[in-house]
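Protocol step 4 of 6: record predicted structures for both targets in the notebook before any analysis. Target 1:
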Amino acid sequence: MENTEYKIAKGLLEIEAVRLSPEKPFLWASGLHSPIYCDNRKALSYPAFRRTICEAMIDVINATFKDVDVIAGVATGAIAYGAIVAEMMGKPFVYIRSKAKDHGMGNQVEGVLRGGERVVVIEDLISTGQSSLAAVDALLKCGVHIAGMVAIFSYNFDRSRRAFENADVELHTLSNYDTLVDVALDTGYIREGDVKMLKEWRYDPDKWSKDHE
């Protein structure tokens, strides 16, 4: 029987929300070359899989975080997922912009927070963790308590793991890069000879990028 990590990774590959191309790397906006491209927003267009993701998030929240008051989504990719999870759980919802607005009230957090609430943050993708933890900082400035974060997928970089540990933020992901590589091999998406190269990227993405420019 497939576990949640395997099922989510398999679904992301099937709908091409995640694509692997070890021989022809993708160019990220950051300038890095990568064998993987991830756009989890695509899952929103597949109702059954979208529900699977949100139900899995709720299972994590109910099993891990107690007395949750508010669900927060990180803009832009996790806003819809966070709103759906909040609706299914009957919880208030807020979302966090990447930066404060330069007009109106200048809000970075949109929605109602009075201070003191226990908040679970929903994220779609964890790469270095910096933007996700910046969203946490914005919430903390509102006087809330962060119960933790639940994300759909993580690249499993060591730097992101350390960043969350240093920030004392508990992170749970539904699936991850290592599981994705296993699924891709099992389903014939990649060949056995691709695995070593794909794992080298995860261990040192900067060096891998330079070697594959």
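Target 2:
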Amino acid sequence: MIKPPALEPGDTIGIIAPAGPVNPEALNRGIAELHRIGYKTVLADSVLSQRGYFAGEHVHRAEAFLSMLANPDVKAILAARGGYGANYVVEYLSRPPVLRRLKRLRPRIIMGYSDVSSLLLFLQQKLRWVTFQGPMIAKDFAAGETGYDRELLEQVLARRSSEIHVRSNAITLRQGFAEGRLYGGCLSLLVATLGTAEEIDTRGTILLLEDIAEKPYRIDRMLFQLRRAGKLRGVRAVVFGEMLGCAEGSTPAEELRPVIAEALSGVKAPIVFGLRFGHTTGGCLTLPIGVRARLAARKNVKLTLLESAVGPPSLPRRHSARDAR
């Protein structure tokens, strides 16, 4: 794994909209929160653009991301929100001439969730970059410190600690211990990669799965498809998010328990439910994709990151015209 430089107080965070259109008021609240906790921000030119259910033209969203990567002052790139459309950005970035440009750029902290899972997994698999399932500007940061876990955010993005304990109120569905690399994101986006050049590789992973507003039978269908595609074979553990709105009568934990038990009946690995990553009720966690982790699923669930997700802070360098080409 190639680790991005650590984020330090006073660093500049670039804000992009790789998927759906952004609410300006929510965006401003999220920016104000980032400023309050000590960071500077810079907006992509197209961040408030809109074309139907996209945040502007596909090429503009992709080029905005590349421009942020080429800017030496930007130390992290965060998604304003999810929505739909990051798959078009991935398609653009995967074109050979563009991919060659991308490979010349230095890694940065890239963070988001939901539809942004497509971009995070593309960067992780194609470039071996550590990426980050974590809070977004116009949602989690916009809610203030109740919307995200600030302590974990700073530990993961700024500290080069070899061991970080993730606070968890998740419940155990199947007991056990596991070690593997953290991987995954929004369930429907993971399933959407099957049969494409960006098909997910889940071998040896602690697999993170979350989604929002999907009916139980749809969750069943997606888990079944992962199983039939062999993507649950060789996983070390499966960790579900809160799965907000994925129940029709009771709570998601109660209603999805039998769905998960049947769909994952052949998976001989620990399974937990309710970790606060992705779409959450608050306190959104920052989880690095690609690093080694340990899961202990007993009466209490303990997730431990076994290595740092970031490297030494980057030194300033001159911005060259070649960086943007």
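Step 5 preliminary note on target 2. Confidence is low (pLDDT under 50) at residues 317-324. The chain has two domains: 12-146, 164-305.
Proceed to step 6 after PI sign-off.
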